[in-house]
Each structure stands twice: as structure tokens, then as C-alpha cells.
Amino acid sequence: MDVTSIAVGLLHDTVEDTALSQQGLRDQFGEDIATLVDGVTKLTRLELQSDRTKQAENFRKLVLAMSRDIRVLIVKLADRLHNMRTLHYVQRLDRRQRIARETMDIYAPLAERIGMDRVKTELQNLSFAQMEPEAHETISARLNYLRGQGADVIEQVRRELSALCSEAGLSEIEVTGREKTPYSIWEKMQRRNVAFEQLSDIMAFRVLVPSRDACYVALGAVHGAYPVIAGRFKDYISTPKANGYQSLHTGVTLREPRNQKIEVQIRTPEMHDLAENGVASHWSYKERGSTGASVNETAAFGLHKLRWVQDLLEILEDSQAPDEFLENTKLELYQDQVFCFTPKGQLISLPRGATPVDFAYAVHSQVGDACVGAKVNGRLLPLRHELQNGDQVEIMTARGGTPSPSWERFVVTGKARARIRRFVAAQQRQTYIDNGRAALAKAFRQEGVDGSEKTLEGALRDLKQATVDDLFASVGNGQIGPRDVVNTIYPELRQTPRAPRMVPGLVARSTTHARHKPGTGSVLTGIGSGIAVSFANCCHPLPGDPIVGIIAQGKGISVHTASCQNLTAFSATPERFLEIGWNYETLSHGNAGAPHTGRISVIAANEPGVLATLTNAVSKHHGSVVNLKIVNRQLDFMEILVDLEVRDLQHLSNMIAGLRAAQGVMQVERARS
User: Fold this and answer.
1) pLDDT tens by residue, 486-535
2) What residues pair up with 637 in beta bridges, in sequence order?
3) Which intervals hold domain HD (predicted)?
4) Among 17, 27, 137, 256, which one carries the catalytic annotation?
5) Domain 3-136 maps to which CATH number in 1.10.3210.10, 1.10.443.10, 3.30.420.40, 3.20.20.150?
6) pLDDT value, residue 394
7) Would you say residue 304 has pLDDT above 60?
8) What is the rounded CA–CA span in Å between residue 570 and residue 580?
């Protein structure tokens, strides 16, 4: 590594953990070091937040920082490796496992993407030990047992491979052998759904030879001496991985021990250095060479080789929210690769399971947007067809073509998914704006307050919106509730209790609450005439619910459902409880008074058109949406709280039944306090 990177590694915690300021660091060590330390410090400080959105924002900042200078990522990986090596000192199990999961999901794949295989392997194994301690201990114990049973097997095979290469006329060779790591064994067990005893290839050998041509000579010697395992040969020399990795991989079966399978990797010392250290090896070669290249030129060269960084920046631009960006980049980072080709011979590496649509977006975003069909090896195949190694793919495009929302169901790359979602969001934006404008107008009208665009403009900063149209769209798609907007602009409506909704027949003429026979206009029994009555917003009681009344001094009676959790707050004052019920005779004549509010919780697919489906289903059952708010949005689903105007419990139950049958709806329940 260059001097600047080493200095940043030593200084990365100084601003956060000491009295030294950023300006002091700049004065003592210069602009380059101070800038890199500042980037890493900000990232580290954000990581102290465990919230998912904070983690996503942190990763977003990391991508931006490393796109400007790849050394930020190298220092960050070194810092994370040190943290993982000392993670056992953290007392709380949940915190250790959270850090381990973050390392496995983000930092290990990043290390692999820049070719730092040694760092990646150690991060994976340290994370595995925290995430699956029992599995790690069991596999490690099994490896120790096998090591004791056949301690000389690795040395025996190593000598055989050395002799084979010598007999083939190769000199200056180096052969090493090792057992595969506990994590790689566990991952293979999970992928193949087999037990440890069913795995036969837990040993791997590496052969270093002096030149590229010698790699193929050594390969021929190995294949000539042992039976080759079909489908295990991979030539990463002629077709390197995206991170520059080059090597020959093959699998063979030994004669002794009987049927023992091994993996053999063959490469040159230079290839090995790149495989172990990735982009960090570029600094080593530059320092040993005589090119006179500056550190900045070297860093730029390392970044230029990493097209996936540019793909992540595209995903960052296309993703609507930080957590969506995090999910999409996880898809992009995890790649068990297949290699396909354009008609002109350009190599495109994709995750296993990729489709022609993923291929099109990997070629260029505009090619993906305009894709209308694909030929694979000369045959016209569906866009959801799964590509295989060696496929030649020709993308058919149309002028003015646009992505189909249905593509999101089968694409596997984060880049494709983010681009499709961006297009769909743009198409729906106007619909959201119109719906949001109508919802806000209704909310302001109900409160009898001004909701003009000029009024809204004054609240944009508090609502974290750039324009009024952005605000309308956020309300229309459920990210912000209409009531939240009203309460932000008119906080007194939130702080001052609204006048209780009066039940017909219960006009404030008396303060007594003696029980009497209800009048013809009353919907409740057990309450004296002239008492103010309000229905609790915590549980939203409906005709048909078992109910109780709570006497509120000077405010009349508050009606709750009998199962309302807030009733426990009044357990110390049982004298405030009032036995009441519904006057079904009055209700049967249609005298329910003002519409009641029923609240439901909906879990639905996070896909275009779902909110419209919900409102249409409500409308079909003669109801209306009073308020709607998305309280949790994930990659595949979202949780929505919906307030509905309903007549009674049966009316709400009918709506719930209709919603459960709606397309894209996974679960509907009445929301409880």
C-alpha cells in the first residue's frame, strides 16, 4: 500500500476518539489524508446507529466515498477486519450478531469485488462463528478429527502434484494444500442440502507456476493423472472475473484415498497476488516498477477496472430510498457468476439465474429500457429465460420501448430491478400527485382550515419535501398521512383535543350519568340524557363491538371497546367505568348518526397499483378511505394502516373479507390499540 493509505489506517479514529479536529489533522498531515480520514470517520460514526435506515444511509455514503477514491474502501475493510477479530469482547449477543450479519452481507462481498480474497475469507469465517456458533463449532471439531485421522493426506497429494509438474518439464513451481474453511463447507452443505459426511471435496490445492502458458501445461498434467469431475473446470485466465481474478480451477478424484475429491487451482505468482490482495496489489507492483506513476494515478487505475462501482452509482441514482438501495446492492454484490457474450464477443458476467433483461441492463441502461425480445444462441426465447454459461445473447430493442413492471418479478440483478422501479415510479408519479392533492384537500376541508399551495409551501421544510408536487406524491403513495400534514401546519389541532363527536340524542343539557331508557335518537344504552359522548381514537369502537364507557371529568363519556389495551390505565379508578351498550333498535332503523371510523392493518405486495386496488375494494363495499399511511416498506411488501368510514362491525368485516381477496394483498386485520 501507499504511504497515504497506511497513514489513513493509523489515523482513521483520531477525529472521533481524540481532541484533534479535522482542521488540525489537515494542518499536520495534508489535504489528501484529512479528506480520506473524514470520509471514514463519518461512516464509522453513522455505523453506531442500529436502525436499518441508518445502515442504508451509511452504505450509501460508503459507495459515494469509494467511487471518488478506492482507498476509502480498503481502509474501511481493514477497520472492519480488526473489529471482527476483537468482536468477542462485545458483551451483548444481539449486537455481535448484528455486526456479523452486516459484515457478511456487505463487507465480505465488497472485499471479494475488489479481489481481496484473503480478507473476504477471514471476514466470512469470523462472521459465521458469531451467526451460527453451533454449526461453526461442529464443523471445526469434525475437521480436527479428520485432520488427526489422515494428517499425511494433504502432504501426500502435495508431493504427487509437485512430481507431476516436474515430469511435465515445469520448474520453479510451488504447491500448497489446505482444508476448506468452516464457512465454505457450511455454505456448500446448505446449497447442496447434504450432511458433512456426504461432502467429499473438503481439500483444495494451489499450484503456482512461472508463466501463463505453464498454467495450461500443469492443467494437462493433472487431468492426465486423475479422473476429472465433470462440470468443475473453469478457465478464469482467458475469461477473468469482474474483479480481475485469473486462475484455472478444476476438480479431480484421487485414487488414494479412494474416491477422495479435491479442487486444484493453477495460477502464476502475479495472478496469486491479485487473487489474495486485489486492487491493493496494484500499489505493490507500481512501487516495484519504474513507471513513476503517482498514487493518485494508481488509485484511478484501480477504480477504472471496477465497472461494478459505476453500476452501484447507477443503482444509487435509480433507487427511491436508502433501504431500497441497500437491498438492490446486496443483489448486485452476491454473484455466483455465469458468463455470457454479446454478438460482438463482449463478455458480460451475471449472477446465476440471470435473464435476458438482466443481460440488457448490464450492457447499458438504455438497452434494458428499450428491450422487447432476445435471441439466445440464435433462438428467440422468452425474456424470463434463465441464461447459462457461454450463451450468446442478442437483445432486440424498439425505439420508444419502455420497461414492463412485470419484469421486476424475474430479474435478479440490483441494477435491473432499480431501473425498472424507477421507471414505474415515474409513470405513477402523476397519479400519486392527483390522489395526494385530493386527500389533502379533504383533510383541510374537514378541519375547516386553509390548505392552499401557498400554505403548503411554508411547511415543505418541516415535512422534508422539496416541492409541493413532491408533497402531493408522498401523500398519494402513502409515505405521509394527510393528517400528519395538517398537524404539522396547524399544531394546535394536534395539541388541543377536538370537540367530542356528539351522538344524536345525547345533547349536553345535564352532567348526570344515571342510567335510563334511551331515547329514540340514541345509539347507546346505559347513559343518561344530555351527556357528551365521544368515541375513543385508540380502539375505534363500532356498533357490534362489546363496549365500556369511561367517565372523563368535565368531558362526558369516552367509549372504548371492551378489549382496548388503554383501559388498564383506569384500573386504579373502577368507579370511572360505566356499563353501556349499543341501542340496536335505533341502529336497525338506520339511525347510526355520523359514520364511524374503523382502522385496519394491511400487508400487501410492494408493487405498482396495490394502493389503487385497496381503494377500489373499499369503494365496492360502499366505504371510503379517511386516512392511509404506510408504516413499514420493505423490498417485497409494505404494511399500511387505513382508517375507513363504516356503518358498523359487520360492514368493516365485509370490507376486510373483500380486501383479503384483492390482488396483491397478503394479510388484512383489524388494527388494535
Assistant:
1) 989 998 886 444 443 333 333 333 333 333 333 334 688 877 666 788 88
2) 605
3) 1-84
4) 17
5) 1.10.3210.10
6) 94
7) no
8) 16
Closest CA to 95 of 47, 138, 152, 45: 47
Hey, is 136 helix, strand or coil? helix
Start-end of H helices in 334-467: 356-363, 365-369, 414-447, 453-457
Q: Is 16 a catalytic residue?
A: yes
C-alpha to C-alpha distance for 73 and 114, rounded to whole angstroms: 9
Distance in angstroms (rounded) separating the CA atoms of residues 638 and 605: 6
Q: pLDDT tens digit string along 584-630?
A: 667 655 555 567 889 999 998 888 888 888 888 888 888 889 899 99
Domain definitions of the chain by residue range: 3-136, 152-277, 422-495, 497-594, 596-670
- Closest residue by Cα to residue 595 from 560, 549, 532, 644: 644
**Distance in angstroms (rounded) separating the CA atoms of residues 94 and 76:** 23
pLDDT at 307: 61
CA distance 1 to 365: 35
Q: Are 435 and 476 in contact (CB under 8 A)?
A: yes
Contact predicate 170/209, CB 8 Å: yes
Q: Would you say the pTM of this structure is higher than 0.70?
A: no
Task: Read off φ and ψ for residue 359, nearest 5 degrees.
Answer: -60, -45
Task: Assign domain 596-670 to its CATH architecture.
Answer: 2-Layer Sandwich (3.30)
320-360, pLDDT tens digit by residue? Answer: 555 555 655 554 555 556 778 888 878 787 888 899 999 99
Question: Which of these ranges, 59-68, 420-429, 528-537, 549-558, has the smallest mean pLDDT?
Answer: 59-68
Confidence of residue 83 (pLDDT cuts 50, 70, 90): very high
17 is catalytic: yes
Burial class (CB in 10 A: 0-12, 13-18, 19+), 149: exposed
Residue 213 has pLDDT above 90, yes or no: yes
CATH match of 152-277 with 3.40.1790.10: no
Query: What is residue 170's DSSP assignment?
Result: -
Please give the Cα distance from 70 to 268 (Å, whole number): 25
Distance between CA atoms of residues 282 and 71, nearest Å: 12
Q: All 3 cell numbers of residue 410?
A: 424475474
**DSSP letter string, 20-86:** --HHHHHHHH-HHHHHHHHHHHHHHHHHT--SHHHHHHHHHHHHHHHHH-THHHHHHHHHHHHHHHT
Measured distance CA(457)–CA(167) in Å, rounded: 82
